[in-house]
Amino acid sequence: MEVTVFDTKAAMGIAAAGKGMELISKTLLEKGYARIILATGASQFEMLAELVKADVDWSKVTVFHLDEYIGIPDTHPASFRKYLNERFVELVKPAAFHAINGEADPEGECARLGAIISEQEIDVAFVGIGENAHLAFNDPPADFHTVEPYIVVDLDLVCRQQQLGEGWFPSLEAVPARAISMSVRQIMKSKAIICTVPDSRKAEAVQKALEGEVLPEVPASIMQTHPYAWLYLDRGSASLLKPA
Predict the structure, then answer these.
(1) Phi, psi (5° rounding) for residue 205?
(2) Helix (H, G, I), strand (E, B) or coil at 56
């Protein structure tokens, strides 16, 4: 994994989006189309703001997203499909956006999306790391073995507190306890991974994910094994890493 640290979130976002544009453009030249995964949450604000400016023919790009709460509508302020529709899909109008419907039958929705995403390889996955080192909503201990592309997961307390702390919900009780998440193995099947992680509150998770063992208790540590992964940090999120 190639790790780069930036002085500001803005610089981090510009660099991550630039690498994404490079990889997507290369894929479009080679294949004529591309399939990508987009993350959501506060960690992706700067990256997505830059990515929508990229000189890319988005009409040839199909978009999937990582996770969605079970039981909330797409009008809810915390809905991830609402987040991506407003910050990306409506702005660039990709070929398709395969949103996770949190109001649908969870098992049926996992099967529906699993069939679609399995049709062809994912070219670029844009992801983040949670405060508990989760990857998508795969909280620790994550399932590193399931081959199902999408799974129903229970959200742990640290994950739910993070969503509250980022301002998406008015109270801890309002944060859903379950979600549909892309599985770890499905994310790792992506040809390339771009991981963007700002803020000192993520520093411990970043340190464990990069410098510790690859363990289900540190879900994001699995990215150590990916041959084409780029990690973009700011000074806060990198603050606990050993000097290079």
Answers:
(1) -65, -40
(2) coil
- Provide the token pair at 189: 């099947």
What 3-state DSSP class applies to 193? strand
Residue 75: other Cβ atoms inside 10 A: 7
**Residue-range domain boundaries for the chain:** 2-234
Q: Please check the confidence at residue 186 and state whether its pLDDT lies above 80.
A: yes
CA 85 to mean position of chain CA atoms: 15
- In the predicted structure, residue 162 carries a pLDDT above the cut 90: no
Q: What is the pLDDT of residues 48-61, one digit of tens each?
A: 999 999 999 999 99
Domain 2-234: assigned CATH number: 3.40.50.1360
Going by their DSSP bridges, the two strands 96-98 and 2-6 should be labelled as unpaired
The whole model's pTM is what?
A: 0.94
Q: Which two tokens stand for residue 41?
A: 């949450």
HSE-up of 198 (CA within 13 Å, CB side)?
19
d(Cα 28, Cα 13) in Å, to the nearest integer? 22
Tell me the helix, strand and coil percentages in the chain, rounded to 5: 40, 20, 40
